[in-house]
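Long-time lurker. I teach an intro course on protein structure, and each term I like to show students one example going from raw sequence to a predicted 3D structure in token notation. This year I'd like something fresh instead of my usual example. Would anyone be willing to generate the tokens for the chain below so I can use it in lecture? Attribution to the forum is fine with me.
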Amino acid sequence: MKLDKRIKLTQRGYGLLKRYCPGLIAAKVWASAADALTPFVTIWFSARIINEIAGERNLSRLGSYVLMTVIINFALSMLKNALDKVVDEKESGMWNYFPKIFADKQMSLAYTDLEDQEIQKKKQKAQENLFMFGNGLGQLVWDTAGLVQVIVGIIASLSLSVSLFISRSGNALLDSWIWLPVGMLVVIISGISTGKLRQLAGKAFDDWTAGTVWYNRAFMFYGHELYDDLSRAKDVRIYHQDRIADREMQKLNAHNKDDGTNIRKMSCYPAMIVFMQGICNALCYGFVVAKAAMGAFAIGSIVQYAGALIKLVQSIGELVDANYENVIYTGHLEKLFEYLDIQSNVTGGELVPDMECKAEHKIEFKNVSFRYPGSDRYALQNVTATVTSGKKQALVGENGAGKTTFVKLLCRLYDPDEGVILLDGKDIREYDLEEYLKLFAYVFQDFKLFSLSLGENIAVSAEYDPEKLEECILRAYFKERFSTMPQGAETYLYKDIAEDGVMISGGEAQKIALARALYKDAPVMIFDEPTAALDPIAEAQVYSDFDRIIADKTAIYVSHRLSSCRFCDEIMVFENGSIVQKGTHEELCKEIGGKYHELWNAQAKYYQNDDKQYH
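-- Reply from a regular --
Happy to contribute to a lecture. Here you go:
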């Protein structure tokens, strides 16, 4: 990757950190700068102190040098310690901020993008690099300190050593200008060689740990998720899947077998680095001592020049390291930004539905056809239907008939491939998406609640109207359970966040989901198997009182239980992606041989008493 591209990626990475982890990089830069300056303060004042002792021995100046050394180092130390506290706090919290990057991106994508395998592969790769190894953003954070120390080290070292080459000893050979480029060349060669050897040691380590991405992913599953995920707990125990996990863990433990080659390399390269630095340090000391012996400068300056040159060699080596690390993490940043730069397919216009006329909206499907991404089969084909305001409509049919797809298109989770959906005579794609979605409250079959308070789950907000909340709880038949909750609406669900959180059953969760839909108070209520987890008594209560629950709103009801559709004003029967029948329960039952009649009789026989089976 070219340098200019790496610079742009690095800058963009810092921009992302500034947005999601504000203050982290600034604190790290200043803390690292204070840390990097400290040894140079000591080197400079030590040279002054030794020169004074070897010269005039002025106690006043000596005292000033000592006092200034202590004060400046103390100030730098205090600054570094204070900033380190900020860095530690922010760096420990950055792992909580990083998931927000992916959450924001997911929310910006169209629902169809979430099912795109290529998009999800990019997301998974970026997440693995970031969360398993800290590559990319994490490595950028950690390497910032080293980069700052390199820059400060090179600038400070050059500032303290430049006078070495312009000071005069009276010896033509030692005072020759040639020593400046020679000295810089020696320092640069040593620094680069040291950096290259570190890279070779790093490569040997990478080779030794080859396959670690797979190893970590498998280890996290077999050693952690398989046992901790409660949704798998029953199967693990009943089918003794822990035996499979133990077997796989034994395979994983064999991943680090090595013939010793890489281990020897990892041992040899550091020794070679020490040897190379020793040669360069000896050359630097030799030149500095030679000029001092010829009277070019006072003896205390040996400390300054030798220390500065050694730090310069070290800094150049670290610069090579920093460049090598930058190559690595910018490669990972590029993968992250490939995912973040995916253009969303979400489109919308500027129209805003009139929310005041809640019972007067008209939604029409006109010759709508749709296929899921990657599928050749139509999930809906040539569907024409009207969602009638203020009416209760049921969608019935066998699995895969198109019922749920119909309501997903209605809510613009997908857009039709053919045909058009109209709201009050306008294509729904002409409406602002966020405003359009305010029309609907949806209880999904696979709904999710969150480890937040009951009130926040229902209101989907940290602030809510207590009276409205209790009214929705009552209408959703959750009042009895609610009365037992220790903190009322402030009671946390589940124990992920709060130790005193309450566990709720599937039926209770479904009532909360119903209360959430009621609290939104949207003109159109959509229920996809809303009583699947309820007991028969609770289900009967919901059905018998459905008119009071939804009041004068438009309701769309998706269900496999045809008996629950009897209270609806209209039933639409789906088969193979098409609407094959429409009408009331009584009308459809009279159509002998029709799909509804077939489905109704198939279910009804399970509820009919056959006295013979009891005798």
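Some talking points for your students: The longest helix spans residues 59-108. The chain has 21 helices and ten strands.
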